[in-house]
Amino acid sequence: MTLVAPTPSSGSPGSLRWALADSWTLTVRGVSHWVRNPGPVIFSLAFNVLIVLMFVYLLGGAMRVPGGGDYRDFLMPGMFAMTMLFGIAATTQAVTADVERGITDRFRSMPMSAAAMLAGRAVADMLLSVLTLAVMVVTALAVGWRPYGSTGEFLAALGLILLLRLALVWIGVYLGLALSGAEAITGVQTLEFPVGFLSSAFVATATMPGWLGAIADWNPISSTVTATRRLFGNPGAVGDSWIVEHALPMAVVWPVALLLIFFPLSVAKWRSLRR
């Protein structure tokens, strides 16, 4: 029989401090893994930079922005959002690896906060996302992209991008708990591309067939991309559909809705593991 030390009850004065301390410990664990094995992080950053260079210098000359404007300015808000989407597979893989190696069960048997493991993973991935976004902004400036809005609008746009990433982190956490095996991870990685390309990230939805453009407009990625284009003062943030006209509030509504769905699903799935 395994004896487990008691943990503070959810209503005890020290429960919040206990949960925060455990979450921080597991956040540091996630970050330390990247420090000891930086290869995947470096590869991910290099891949994102390579995609930017391909679209700017190989494909950009053939692209036309509806209403006029530089394609580089049109592209980069879409690329910022796409790099957040590309992180789903990494989150899924990290969570799945802990489950399959028994680390999750080990943590569940320890006297730690029930929310700590999930919160630690989410915070660690958000820290990596901040680094990724910083690298992307520097890359964008290097290839000629410029934001034309105010400092407050610039920071608000970055906030919307990270809010989208927070929602996508919890999708990745849920998928990591629900799926298993290398094939499942490959499937998640494969789906990132059609989900991202079926949006306004790389081309204006007005250039698509009507039915396809409507689907792309209602992609949550498109709302964030359109909203950040407006805040950055970049071209391409126009459209006559309701969802495009209300892109700014929808760039908040979509991530919050996804959080309200996938956060409780992740908690419920974690609690049901190996019962």
UniProtKB/TrEMBL annotation:
<feature type="transmembrane region" description="Helical">
    <location>
        <begin position="74"/>
        <end position="97"/>
    </location>
</feature>
<dbReference type="GO" id="GO:0046677">
    <property type="term" value="P:response to antibiotic"/>
</dbReference>
<dbReference type="GO" id="GO:0043190">
    <property type="term" value="C:ATP-binding cassette (ABC) transporter complex"/>
</dbReference>
<keyword id="KW-1133">Transmembrane helix</keyword>
<dbReference type="InterPro" id="IPR000412">
    <property type="entry name" value="ABC_2_transport"/>
</dbReference>
<keyword id="KW-1003">Cell membrane</keyword>
<dbReference type="InterPro" id="IPR013525">
    <property type="entry name" value="ABC2_TM"/>
</dbReference>
<keyword id="KW-0472">Membrane</keyword>
<feature type="transmembrane region" description="Helical">
    <location>
        <begin position="247"/>
        <end position="268"/>
    </location>
</feature>
<feature type="transmembrane region" description="Helical">
    <location>
        <begin position="154"/>
        <end position="179"/>
    </location>
</feature>
<dbReference type="GO" id="GO:0140359">
    <property type="term" value="F:ABC-type transporter activity"/>
</dbReference>
<feature type="transmembrane region" description="Helical">
    <location>
        <begin position="191"/>
        <end position="212"/>
    </location>
</feature>
<keyword id="KW-0046">Antibiotic resistance</keyword>
<dbReference type="InterPro" id="IPR047817">
    <property type="entry name" value="ABC2_TM_bact-type"/>
</dbReference>
<feature type="transmembrane region" description="Helical">
    <location>
        <begin position="118"/>
        <end position="142"/>
    </location>
</feature>
<feature type="transmembrane region" description="Helical">
    <location>
        <begin position="41"/>
        <end position="62"/>
    </location>
</feature>
<dbReference type="InterPro" id="IPR051784">
    <property type="entry name" value="Nod_factor_ABC_transporter"/>
</dbReference>
<keyword id="KW-0813">Transport</keyword>
<comment type="similarity">
    <text>Belongs to the ABC-2 integral membrane protein family.</text>
</comment>
<feature type="domain" description="ABC transmembrane type-2">
    <location>
        <begin position="39"/>
        <end position="273"/>
    </location>
</feature>
<protein>
    <recommendedName>
        <fullName>Transport permease protein</fullName>
    </recommendedName>
</protein>
<keyword id="KW-0812">Transmembrane</keyword>
<dbReference type="Pfam" id="PF01061">
    <property type="entry name" value="ABC2_membrane"/>
</dbReference>
